[in-house]
Amino acid sequence: MTTISLAMAVVVAVLYSVGFYLLLQRSLMRVLLGVVVLGHGANLLLQLAGGPPARPPILDGTGDTAGLADPLPQALALTAVVITFAMTTYLLALGYRSWVLVGHDEVQDDLEDRRIARRRTVKASMGEEVEETGDEVGVDPGSAAASDDPVTSTADVR
Amino acid sequence: MTTSLLPVLPVLLPLLGAAATVVAGRSAWAQRAIGISVLAAVAAVATVLLVQADRHGPVVSEVGGWPAPVGIVLVADRLSALLLLISTVVTLAVLVYAIDQRIVDYGRRTASTTFHPIFLVLSAGVSLAYLTGDLFSLFVAFEIMLAASYVLITRRTDATRIRSGMTYVTISLASSLLFLTTVALVYAATGTVNLADLATRVADLPTGLQTVLALLVVVTFGIKAAIVPLHFWLPDSYPNAPAPVTALFAGLLTKVGIYALLRTRTLIFPEGHPSTLLLVLAAVTMIVGVLGALAQNDLNRLLSFLLVSHIGFMIFGLAVSDAAGIAGTALYVVHHITVQATLFLVSGLITRRTGTVSLDKMGGLAKRAPLLAILFAIPALTLAGVPPTSGFVAKLALLQAGAGGGSGTAIVAGIVVLASLLTLYAVVRVWVRVFWGEPREPLPDNDPDDELVVGTARTSTPMYAASAALVAVSVAIAVAAGPLSAITTRAGDDLVARTPYRTAVLGDGGAP
Amino acid sequence: MTATPDARVPWDRWDAPTEDWMLTGDPVVSERTLLLELAARILFPTVLVFSLYLLLVGHYGPGGGFAGGLVAGLAFVLRHIAGGRSEGAEIGARVKVRPPVLVGLGLGVAVVTALVPAAFGAPVLSSAKFAFDIPLLGHLDIVTSLALDIGVYLLIVGVVLDLLRSLGSGIERDAREAAAADDAGEAAA
């Protein structure tokens, strides 16, 4: 079982808490930063799982393996770094797309959720016509949530 | 051709297909032909793997010739081969369904350069998740699968879909990073990431550490499988995607989470007695999911909540954690992959016909589209578990396992029955509001340029054929319930015994 | 773009390069930097050669397909930045291969390389070494995993080019269109 130094444990803890804090924000840009920081934390932890710093794990033909670092966590971290990198790029693109479409990059509320919460009674009775709260002609099924009467976007509420 | 090549093909063939479809990006028909033939080939390979695994034990492939536990191994035992087969069949049907879905990129009228390649990459990720024999490759498999799913769910986004996409991506990223943390901690504690090797090493750890690792695993895969209270993202994000994408996600992605739980719980953290935590989670998931479904007015959201509810059924079998419970879960996963995907595909057809997903604005569809009514009725009743459907067979297996597990499991088994009845109520409610009553005129398509063609009475042969094929598969599961449950029983015995898997991966040294 | 001898070169264009291999399209002169352009001009081929070096030494030294591909991608990024914002023609237009095709080819090469050993009865993804003695170059060790690296190299270059196209030129185009729409709106008002 590998143990790590206190300083590194603290660094990992700080990275995780900062990362998760940012992940909980509404702005996708902060979420992106959160993912980056959290990814660093996870990769650092993965590195530390290999034990304390040691000689580079390169066999130079002498067959001398004493004091070599564990190469596996390094390989794992390398893979994880690449994956995090790809996700960062993707999130950037998504944030940009959101900015183009809605003018900001904040994650908004689910309108269908709100609408169900606002219904006074659960209209579970079968076959009954359900009265409408809003006039909804021409609902695009791809955006059923958008068909509500003006539950304003979160940006306006806040 | 040696058998050791077989487990590699379900991963590499779709990737090769993805490469080919990217290069053939200008021809939609070439893309479809490549995608369908690749998935058909993978289904054939999965069938051979299942027969091999059932007759001669797990098929192991050591990638690059490095033996376990040092190298990466791909293992196809009964469970993974069976799930691989059914997943590939469903993926194939969804791809056929998507032939008639208008899939275009921005500013283009013809083929999409992204849909088919990403679809096949997703399929490769799912295959890798089922077949991989080490924890880190499982992480990579999840990332391949999720990255592909991010693209599929945010392709051609409008302002509504981008919200659901953001929710989905953020939650998935959080769970992925949690998974990475788990891998790091597991490696730090044991010095290995090979699942078969972990089976012995984790048992030597202190109990507290074992509990922490086991909990991390449950939370990580619990988010992916949408177990209550980690389910909030699912009804929020799935319903807004196009029907084929939703069907694929609902059928496969959550089930891969269940598979990962099944594999790690049986192999690494076996408890040998019913797990109280999982029993509670199962009960809560079943009830919260189905009650959520009853409150919905949006057909796709309703189905998403039912999906959450039925995740609880699978967790229940896992919580019982004896051979019968595991076998019941395996059978339930097979049944549920098929039926949930079918329901979402049929929901897409209903939307196409009526122009809306709102139950309030539908009605009288039974007279106008009788074929659609049949296609909805069979999977709906199967989901509720009405005899003699495959849902009944799978639930019976779970109930039998629950009855044999002690008083705690017996109570939750009662909740299984209750949740099944409520599911029946939910689908009957949909039936009454969509198919009975006054026929309504379809609503017009208010965005003719997007990928959804709605409010049309034109029947689409590929869409109906794919849905009907999946209905036929679920009927076939009911007809072949005897041999199928024999396989899942043997798979359950294997998983609980743990020896076949470890011996196959590690050689004779794996025997305890 | 190319200044023909008889055409009078506008005074603000006299420093524009006459070959078009380097630019991303018709440059907007005000947004170009002479220094950066010159640097890009010298660096672009050098960096590409260096990326090939990284690709080839990858088996025994630091480097490999991923690193080499990224370095080559950086060369294209440099070219993109030096070219200023592009009107119409994008970086993808100068590179005759469409980026997705590059990605597909790279992935295809990598997967086929993984599968080829199976044809010789070896496990998937295993590699073999061939040693040559070539005059002038001396002793060469070629490992078959080089083919996998080449696949990765192509894939990464394709990805970077696609990123430059969608997130580079694409965003610039969107911004220009938005600005044009604003102008039109103001003019109408």
TrEMBL record, chain A:
Name the residues that span the membrane.
6-24, 31-50, 75-96
Q: Specify the protein name.
A: Na(+)/H(+) antiporter subunit C
Record's Pfam families? Oxidored_q2 (PF00420)
* Topological type in the membrane: Multi-pass membrane protein
Its GO CC terms? plasma membrane
Compartments annotated for it: namely:
Cell membrane
Signal peptide start and end residues: none
Provide the family line: Belongs to the CPA3 antiporters (TC 2.A.63) subunit C family.
Keywords for the protein's UniProt record, in alphabetical order: Cell membrane, Membrane, Transmembrane, Transmembrane helix
- Which Gene3D superfamilies would you find in this protein's record? 1.10.287.3510
Please tell me whether the keyword Transmembrane helix is annotated for this protein: yes
Residue ranges with Acidic residues bias: 128-138
Which domain of life does this protein belong to? Bacteria
User: Region labeled Disordered — which residues?
Assistant: 122-158
UniProtKB/TrEMBL annotation, chain B:
Segments forming domain NADH:quinone oxidoreductase/Mrp antiporter transmembrane:
133-419
> Could you confirm whether the keyword Cell membrane appears in this record?
yes
Q: Cellular component per GO?
A: plasma membrane
Q: What are the TM regions of this chain, as residue ranges? A: 34-52, 82-99, 111-130, 136-153, 165-189, 209-234, 241-262, 274-295, 302-320, 326-350, 371-390, 410-432
Chief place where the protein resides: membrane
Q: Which UniProt keywords apply?
A: Cell membrane, Membrane, Transmembrane, Transmembrane helix
Q: Record's family?
A: Belongs to the CPA3 antiporters (TC 2.A.63) subunit D family.
Kindly provide the name given to this protein in its UniProt entry.
Na+/H+ antiporter subunit D
Gene source species: Pseudonocardia sulfidoxydans NBRC 16205
Taxonomic lineage is:
Bacteria, Bacillati, Actinomycetota, Actinomycetes, Pseudonocardiales
From TrEMBL, chain C:
The record ties this protein, via InterPro entries, to:
CPA3_antiporter_subunitB, MnhB
How this chain sits in the membrane, per its record, is: Multi-pass membrane protein
- Could you list the residue ranges that cross the membrane? 38-57, 63-81, 101-122, 142-164
Compartments annotated for it: namely: Cell membrane
| An annotated GO cellular component | plasma membrane
Going by the UniProt record, its keywords in alphabetical order are: Cell membrane, Membrane, Transmembrane, Transmembrane helix
What residues does the Na+/H+ antiporter MnhB subunit-related protein domain cover? 36-161
Family designation: Belongs to the CPA3 antiporters (TC 2.A.63) subunit B family.
Question: What is the protein name for this chain?
Answer: Na+/H+ antiporter MnhB subunit-related protein domain-containing protein
Q: Which organism is it from?
A: Pseudonocardia sulfidoxydans NBRC 16205
